[in-house]
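Q&A log
Question type: sequence-to-structure
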Amino acid sequence: MSNNLSARLTFDDLPSWFAAGCKPRDAWRIGTEHEKIGFCMDSLKPIPYDGKRSIKGLLEMLAGHGWDPVVEGKNIIALKRGLASITLEPGGQLELSGAPLETIHQTCNETTEYHKLVRSISDELGIGFLTLAFQPKWQRDDIHWMPKARYAVMRDYMPRVGEAGLDMMLRTTTVQANLDFASEADMAKKMRISLCLQPLITAMYAASPFEGGKPSGYLSRRAACWLDTDPHRTGILQCAFEDDFGFEAYSQWALDAPMYFIMRDDAYIDCTGSSFRDFMLGKLPQLPGQYPDMNDWELHLSTLFPDVRLKQYLEMRGADAGAWPWICSLPALWKGLLYDPQAEDAAWNLIADWSFDEVNGLRQAVPRTALQTPFRQTTVVKLCEQVLNISKAGLQRLNQQNQAGEDESIFLEPVIRAVESSQTQAEHWLKLYQNEWNEDIDRVFFAAMH
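Response status: OK
Response body:
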């Protein structure tokens, strides 16, 4: 990796990198990422990295089905196939980062094929995966850290900047939708809409009510973790509520967000406590007099975790992981809101006068009360009804059909049912726990298994 003067970044290069992501509408795609918490079927304990029944064994078997292994040191840590990848989160959570696809029908086919493959190998290994977004029984110390060097830096740093960072790393899972934008102005509008609606998404998708074998008091324990995880790189971006928000403003925020590390000679160098702005000025204590290149900038951006993250596309990061229909529903919901111009305008009109303080307050409240959270003179469930109506109409206008002649609005069905009944996935599991399961948390491992 070169760091000579010709490769040195200027401050103007940083927003230009985001601008390179602008695409004409006919080139817009949707990407979907989703994670799963694994467990051993006999003991219900987390899956170790090594051994006969292990994460490593699972990856090796998956590699035999057309996936190319990615190795760090002697350890297989990921798989790639085309534009898709399978990666490991710190506690062994398995993540599929899907390819950018044109329709939700294609995304759902991708998800279905992946689930079938993982299930076939899981059955052979005697392991399972949960549709919950927070480990329901086991504590941090029960979970095996994956052997990825970047996680060692984060593991040491997280307790210095929040109480829940290690829980976020080890015990949570999410589903995420990635969307394109046409221009800087289009990005800014989509960012503002998405940040305002992210707490509503958290409420609708709440699917993590347990911790330590009993109800946690939250419907989204996953979202609660993010309330106490390094506030300098997470949450709702205040700068996005300014009229002049754009690539430059996001770059300025990212410049001052704390760094985790840089890579030199395929090794991670701990840079915690420093900012990328220091690095741009040649004042990084770990590499005094040296300057970053674009690879360093891209790596740094990947370590920032706002509720909506800007890369050369937008990442929607507010939802709990759930079962197969819920995974397909999230990209559909966002596509209906943001890819149809009429729907996007309706979504903008809904949130145009919401302030940063209001949205941030809503974000603080919804992990506990989800759909029943009050907001202004209404409740979140009423707002979610409006959001779903806007998205459904948008998908119907886009009218991308499957072979049966159905448009993509069919994928909204699980969310629509939840909002109509005012019952989240979390409340469904709590009801079973308190009644049919007689408060036996072990039952959830089989009832909520992929």
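Response note: DSSP finds 17 helices and 17 strands in the chain.
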